[in-house]
Amino acid sequence: MKRETIKPFIKWAGGKTQLLPELDARLPEDFKRTVRVYAEPFVGGGALLFHLLAKGLRPERVVVNDSNPDLANAWRVVQSHAAELVEALDELQTDYRARTGEEDRRAFYLAVRDAYNAAIADCADNPVRRTARMLFLNRTCFNGLYRVNAKGAFNVPFGRYANPRICDRETLLADSAALAGVEILDGDFADALAGAGPDWFVYFDPPYRPISATSGFRDYTQGGFDDREQHRLADVCRTLDRKGVRWLLSNSDPKGTDPGDTFFDGLYAGFDIRGVQASRMVNAKADRRGKLGEILVSNFTNGVPS
């Protein structure tokens, strides 16, 4: 297994690949020596986890969670059925590339999207097929978005790519090997932290709070993640802090567009809050991609709880 091929197998809105240098610099300095359990309750594409695994920073126990059942299913399939997934994706890639006209490819895309939306039970009945279709859509839909409507149906339109790489065999097999033994959950973020103690390190990457009335993009699952959930997350962070659990959290920086918006200053008062700039390429509107202000919040400095 080549460490350089260990990377996110899915493009996910809010993915942290561009923010990795900032995240890496804010890990506990004694991470390798003191962290026995690493947890990501909102794993998404898992950029930070794969970064740690590629660096050889693997604690004794790793716990990841995502409330999107299809995404959690995809993680489990990559972990345990990568060879079958590669075969299924290779078939989809061959079929797709055989269609040279844009309208023919669009029709094929829509047929796969319809099949994906019609077969929700595939998560249990045929998890490999479900993940193959999900990754196919991720590589061929508009801008790599994952979005569902109020009924839970994937509704992103066709993307006009000349030669998308639908089957990334090397990454899938490398990720599969790296994920051996990782605990993959699909419940509420708080439930993923049962038994957390001082030898844990938790990275929270929740759905970001919108920085404007039109910028919210939280439709990864039905239900969304509103300010009430942001408050509940902050309560969980304070509970972990009292237990001596170190944590790092990322979110949007509302003061970048409204200097008077002190929502997070109040929510995480007493913790370390720092502004950073991150590149964001997953957005339906091109003028909203590029550098955006974000915040990193932590309850420790230089590896010591604050």
CATH superfamily of the largest domain: Vaccinia Virus protein VP39
| Biggest sheet architecture | 7 strands, mixed
Helix content class: 25-40%
* Quaternary status: single chain
CATH class of the largest domain: Alpha Beta
Number of domains: 2
Question: What is the string of SSEs from the N terminus onward?
Answer: HHEHEHHHHHHEEHEHEEEE
Strand tally is 9
Round the mean pLDDT to the nearest integer and report it. 90
Radius of gyration: 19 Å
**Unreliably modeled segments:** 214-220
Q: How are the strands ordered across the major sheet?
A: 3-2-1-4-5-7-6
- Put simply, the count of helices is 11
Please report the distance between the alpha carbons of the first and last residues: 38 Å
Classify the beta-strand content into a percent band: 15-25%
Query: Given the helix and strand composition, which structural class is it?
Result: alpha/beta
CATH topology of the largest domain: Rossmann fold
CATH architecture of the largest domain: 3-Layer(aba) Sandwich
> What sort of overall outline do the alpha carbons produce when their principal axes are compared?
globular
Q: What do you see in this structure?
A:
This protein has 306 residues and is an alpha/beta fold. The chain folds into two domains: 184 residues, Vaccinia Virus protein VP39 (Rossmann fold); 94 residues, Adenine-specific Methyltransferase, Domain 2 (Adenine-specific Methyltransferase, domain 2, Orthogonal Bundle), CATH 1.10.1020. The strands form two sheets. The protein has a seven-stranded mixed beta sheet with strand order 3-2-1-4-5-7-6, with helices on both faces. The longest helix is centred in the middle third of the chain and has 17 residues. The relative contact order is 0.17.
